[in-house]
Design goal:
single chain; alpha/beta; Aminopeptidase; Glucose Oxidase, domain 1; 2 domains; 17 helices; about 20% strand; binds zinc ion
Length: about 575
């Protein structure tokens, strides 16, 4: 009954807006807090998606639902880079940006080509790591003991009789006065390192960020640092608690073709062989060299740790099939009215996992409705709102929809290595990944809480909604380092990555936790991440309006948000010659 009452209104309003765009929102949407009555109505009424081309300039449930429904439909085939699903997705996004009157951000194109290399091991299960002491060789098996790969995507890689060094956490962190490589020469050697960082190892809140993971704790960093020191191979010792996921996740992640940017497009050095070994395999490897893994591991947690050369040599040979291809970032620009060379970025990745015909149970498509149809829908709603805003924002706004987020964040990595606008003039990146339509909450959770002044921007925006910011519920998982904002941060651009918190108006923290756990277990990275017409968008609308207010302030003010004094990314901003504060 409700449906038939509400549906004609939605359609009528939408149809009207197609002929004559509604007046731009005069007041900042942050102050336009959803009134309780409206929220109740929104929650009660099923959302009827507007049809193509009938979107409003306001941030509405109907618009958000329509975008997600379309992006997660069978027609988009799970939005896998390099498939017909990519064409459907990028075409849809370009159509939307053109409808809003936004400009192509890459000269006359809405696309930025991202070259990629796929490298697949030939007969992976036959590969062994051979650890020799004297003439005595001990073999470590692929999958059960270790996984390895060619990080430079070379067809053939051979590491022979390489000296093995235990380098603790493999961290060089000047702001924490920590250097596991001090006085160490690892050129051509094999570095064995621990996952996470000494703060986690020691559970000492004064070391690094204590139990909260830092970038130094993440595995891509370990490989980068080993490569900077000229190592031939880098092996990370897996530990479920320290990595925040079990060994099976490592094995799955390293199975099949591994994507990367071509070496020619990525200036950072790469270690020829990278991989992981299990804790048990590490104990065996160290014992083979007459060393005690557990004792050495413990010593790595304390200041004054000295790296240890193991009395053993490592050999491994890898054959890979290498295939070059490309995908596209989608880029749209709203030029600033006063300082167009200063850029505020909104980002939300479009890619997902495609389809798998072998999946049992009927649905072979990874729809990616929440991940990240929701973030893309929010980005489109923000773009529409800014495009209609009067007066126009003073700084330019770039709407960046990266590809290959699910593949090591390669699309945003490529953008930050080949930025269309100088990163030193890029004010901030506001990234959206998985906005969950589970109703209104009293808070927004900042993933990467405490990193920069962006926290304060969001706190101010939420005040108008009588809401508050909270920190990441699970900082030990290092989620801050697992979406596209990371690449901006690494280049020193302050970032904001936030989503509706657990403290739901309806049911409190318990209900929020329950909804989140249900999503994680039942839907996340599964075909079950489908569009659901019963979703309650009222909370997402508030979240998106708050992110709108943050972007609006960044676009109109003259100052530049700063990193916190102890952030690992502060140095990168300083190195990039910070933009002047005054004009
Ligand atoms: Zn995602």
């Amino acid at each position: 009954m409700r449906l038939s009452l509400f549906a004609p209104c939605v359609v009528a309003l939408a149809a009207c807006s197609q002929q004559a765009p509604p007046p731009a929102p005069a007041a900042p949407p942050a102050s336009a807090t959803l009134q309780p009555a409206a929220a109740a109505a929104a929650a009660a009424a099923p959302v009827v998606p507007t049809r193509d081309g009938r979107f409003t300039a306001d941030i509405t449930a109907a618009d958000l639902a329509a975008h997600v429904q379309r992006l997660a439909s069978d027609e988009f085939e799970g939005r896998k880079p390099g498939t017909i699903g990519e064409r459907a997705t990028t075409t849809y996004l370009i159509d939307q940006f053109q409808r809003m009157g936004l400009k192509p951000a890459n000269k006359d194109s809405f696309l930025q080509r991202v070259p990629m290399v796929a490298s697949a091991l030939v007969d992976a299960d036959a590969i062994t790591l051979d650890v020799a002491t004297g003439g005595n060789v001990e073999k470590f098996a692929y999958r059960s003991d270790m996984v390895v790969g060619s990080l430079q995507a070379n067809a053939q890689v051979e590491v022979k009789d390489s000296d093995i060094v235990f380098a603790g956490y493999g961290v060089v962190a000047p702001e924490h006065q920590w250097n596991d490589y001090a006085g160490l020469d690892v050129k051509g050697k094999t570095v064995v390192v621990l996952v996470n960082d000494p703060g986690f190892g020691n559970h000492d809140a004064s070391l690094f960020s204590g139990d909260a993971m830092t970038y130094y704790g993440r595995w891509p960093y370990k490989f980068e640092e080993a490569a900077r020191h000229g190592a031939a191979a880098c092996l990370i010792v897996h530990d479920t608690a320290a990595a925040a996921y079990p060994w099976e996740v490592v094995v799955t992640g390293w199975s099949g073709p591994q994507l990367s940017l071509p070496v020619s497009e990525d200036p950072d050095p790469r270690v020829p062989v990278g991989g992981w070994i299990t804790t048990q395999a590490a104990r065996r490897l160290f014992a083979k060299a007459g060393a005690d893994f557990d004792a050495l591991k413990k010593s790595a947690d304390a200041r004054g740790f000295t790296p240890t050369a193991l009395a053993a040599k490592l050999s491994v040979t890898l054959h890979s099939q290498v295939h070059n291809s490309s995908s596209d970032n989608v880029v749209a620009l709203l030029p600033g009215s006063e300082r167009p060379d200063e850029i505020v970025v909104y980002s939300a990745h479009w890619d997902h996992f495609g389809k798998d015909p072998l999946l049992k149970g009927g649905d072979a498509i990874f729809h990616g409705a929440i991940d990240n149809g929701s973030g893309v829908a929010a980005l489109l709603e923000l773009a529409d709102a800014f495009a209609h805003q009067q007066p126009a924002p003073k700084r330019s706004i770039l709407f960046l929809v990266p590809t290959l987020e699910e593949s090591l964040l390669l699309g945003s990595r490529y953008y930050t290595l080949h930025p269309l606008f100088p990163l030193a003039r890029t004010v901030a990146d506001i990234n959206m990944d998985e906005l969950i339509p589970w109703g209104r909450s009293r808070d927004m959770a900042i993933i990467g809480f405490g990193q920069s002044q962006m926290d304060g921007y969001l706190a101010d925006a939420l005040k108008a909604q009588q809401r508050v910011i909270v920190g990441d519920e699970e900082p030990e998982k290092g989620m801050f380092y697992r979406s596209d904002q990371l690449n901006f941060a690494r280049k020193g651009v302050p970032v904001l990555f936030a989503r509706g918190g657990f403290d739901k108006l309806d049911g409190g923290k318990q209900a929020g936790r329950k909804a989140y756990d249900e999503f994680t277990h039942e839907h996340y990275h599964k075909p079950a991440d489908r569009y659901d017409p019963a979703w309650d968008w009222s909370g997402v609308i508030e979240d998106v309006k708050a992110l709108y207010a943050v972007g609006q302030r960044l676009a109109d003010e003259e100052s530049w948000p700063q990193w916190s004094a102890d952030s690992e990314f502060r140095g990168a901003r300083e190195a990039a010659k910070p933009a002047p504060k005054k004009h």
